[in-house]
Amino acid sequence: MTQTLPPLPQPTVETWRRFPREAFALERLSDDDAPELTGLGAAVPPGVEVMTLEEARRAHPALVSGALAASAGPDFARLEAANLARWRGGAFVRVPRGVKVAEPVHIEFVHDAARPYSFPRALVAVEEGAEAVVVEEHRSAPS
């Protein structure tokens, strides 16, 4: 059964008007491994959860599945469909109600430059009255 992808965004849409449309070569997707996730070992305040997204899917299934299904709107539908179908790897940060995190939480994804696409996800859940800064970094592995 062939799944129909949403259309590419129109070049008149502000978000995409300077983006080279041919760069969407989604036919090159593969099931290669996810990028290496680093930066999860830093100390975090008590009660703050930092883990891989796969671990969070087991620990908080409703929260994770609901967030992964959320949409950023029609301008991003094509990329969201590809991401939902192919995501591998990711990070999860949960800051409970009322907790204020003083230092930034750093998440670093190290990508293999030989793979044309990589779809890791970062899910940050900050509950009511909580505060946190999360820094997400993507870089290529050294050659």
Please characterize this protein's 3D structure.
This protein is of the alpha/beta class. Helices cover 18% and strands 23% of the residues. The protein is built from 3 helices and 6 strands, in the order E-E-H-H-H-E-E-E-E. It has helices spanning 53-59, 61-69, 77-86, and strands spanning 36-38, 49-52, 90-95, 105-111, 121-126, 134-140. A 3-stranded mixed β-sheet has the order 1-4-6, with no helix packed on it. Strands 2-3-5 form a 3-stranded mixed β-sheet. Helix 1 (53-59) crosses helix 2. The relative contact order is 0.23. The mean pLDDT is 77.
Radius of gyration: 17 Å
Gross geometry: globular
Helix content: 10-25%
Spatial order of the strands in the main sheet? Answer: 1-4-6
Q: What does the main sheet amount to?
A: 3 strands, mixed
Quickly give the structural class. alpha/beta
Number of continuous helical runs = 3
Element order: H for helix, E for strand: EEHHHEEEE
The proportion of residues in beta strands is: 15-25%
Report the end-to-end length measured between terminal Cα atoms. 39 Å
Low-confidence stretches: none
Oligomeric category = single chain
Mean pLDDT: 77
The count of strands amounts to 6
Provide a compact summary of the structure.
This protein has 143 residues and is of the alpha/beta class. 18% of the residues lie in helices and 23% in strands. It is globular and about 45 Å long.
